[in-house]
Amino acid sequence: MMAGKSMDPWSQRITEEEMARLKEEFGIEEYSVEMLEGLDPPALFRRGLIAGHRGFRTVLKRIRSGRAFYVMSGLMPSGRMHFGHKLVIDQIRFYSRFTNMIHIGVADVEAYATRGVSFSEAFKLATEEYLLNYVALGLPWEKFRIYFQSRHGTVQRLAFVLGRRTNLSTATSIYGFGGSTNLTHVLSPLVQASDILHPQLVHGPIPGVVPVGLDQDPHMRFTRDLAQAFRLFSVQEEGERIAIYQKGEGNHIDQLLHSLEGRYTVESAIFLSDREEEAKGKVMKAYTGGRATAEEQRKLGGEPERCPVYDLFRLHLIEDDHHLTEIEKECRGGKRLCGPCKKEAAELLTSFLKELREKREAAGESEEFKEALRDLKELGEHPPTEEWAPQV
Ligand code: SF4
After folding, report:
1. Which atom of ligand 1 is nearest to the CA of 327?
2. Which atom of ligand 1 lies at the shortest distance from residue 342's CA?
3. Better pLDDT: 38 or 182
4. I need a labelling partner for 93 at 20 to 30 A (CA). Which of 62, 290, 328, 337 fits?
5. CA distance to 3, 19, 123, 152, 157, per residue, from 199 (Å)
6. Is the pTM value of this prediction over 0.70?
């Protein structure tokens, strides 16, 4: 499942035209919330976050029939966790209603290869910043397994095996490697592909869902192609043919995504560990979809579809559809002005962050966290695979 951008609320949305092109030319399948009918998805699934998918129907069939599937997600331990990262956890929490096979890979090899983050720094960030926030955001301890790429023998061995079906020119066309790219960096996409596929060595050949931003689509295609090439990990549902449609040269999509990427830079990320006052300040300083003056705003109305403050309401702060529709109407109709609107968002945000901080502190003192830290230090994973591996 792919979010329509790099999943940060402080960025613009992808246009319908661009999305149509991604679907038509590159075979990203259309998502609509009706696909999840009867599953009581949280608000973000019906508010334009999910832009498309590749092969999600296979997982959906499993959800509906109560059969096994896994969720794979990764975290890059190179910076603090912001609200864009939170959206991934919000999605995973939904899937956790239907599966307890949730894998979280800490991409410390990638962070080391591409950003020079040391393994000890990565450990500290992954456990104290990410793991605590995941639990504080409601991911149940008993439903997920967390591991470090650098410490996981199966992931590394599988990456080595997957490399057998990858040549340098394919990897270069996808990832833009050049003569000065170091070889650890060249290896890291294989490790990521291995992250995504290795749960099938743990649970057997079952399908998985990987929530990512649209900018990760080249990597998803790379991994799906590798799985297809090996045929070890193909997911075949009886009576249904699964195909990957792709027109044109693979690197065209990368050019398009690259051209979109510049527009999605994070202007001023709000981090989950921001102090309440700090986060409030960011909201009050944020650009909006409002007009230049209050008078113009009253006359012309605002543009919530361009407004990151509205996105905060839409994706994080307001669950009630009726309330959200009211805000949208008031904004468009010029009844709502940006100053008080930001204040309202800031208040909701600070109470959310306060509650999250308290949950994070409680999680940090829990026995589960102490046990996870011990396992991660000694084994590089928690819980150890052989103790955990749920039976399919
Ligand atoms: Fe955004 Fe609120 Fe201003 Fe509308 S009124 S543009 S939602 S800040």
Report:
1. 7
2. 8
3. 38
4. 328
5. 23, 31, 22, 12, 13
6. yes
In terms of Cα–Cα distance, which of 165, 164, 266 is closest to 215? 266
> Encoding tokens for residue 199?
């749960």
- Ligand 1: which atom is nearest the Cα of residue 341? 2
CA–centroid distance, 279 to ligand 1, in Å, is 17
pLDDT tens-digit map of 336-367 = 999 999 999 999 999 999 999 999 999 999 99
Q: Which two tokens stand for residue 202?
A: 């743990």
Query: Which of 309, 342, 344, 349 is the pocket-test mutation for ligand 1 (most atoms within 8 Å of CB)?
Result: 309
pLDDT at position 389: 66
| Residue 261 structure tokens | 């990427």
pLDDT digits (tens, 9 = 90+) for 165-180: 888 988 898 888 888 9
pLDDT attached to residue 9: 37
Atom of ligand 1 at shortest distance to CA of 310?
A: 7
**What domains appear along the chain, each with residue ranges and CATH number?**
16-258 (3.40.50.620), 262-364 (1.10.240.10)
Res. 137: pLDDT tops 90: yes
DSSP-assigned letter for residue 56:
H
Residue labelled with tokens 């799906």: 224
pLDDT tens figures, 8-24: 434 445 667 777 877 88
Q: Pick the residue whose CA is nearest to atom 7 on ligand 1.
A: 310
Give the pLDDT of residue 53.
Answer: 93
Residue of 282, 263, 312, 304 whose CA lies nearest to 12: 263
* 107's tokens: 């991409």
Atom of ligand 1 nearest to the CA of 290: 6
Ligand 1, CB within 6 Å, residue ranges: 288-290, 302, 304, 307, 309-310, 331, 336, 338, 341-342
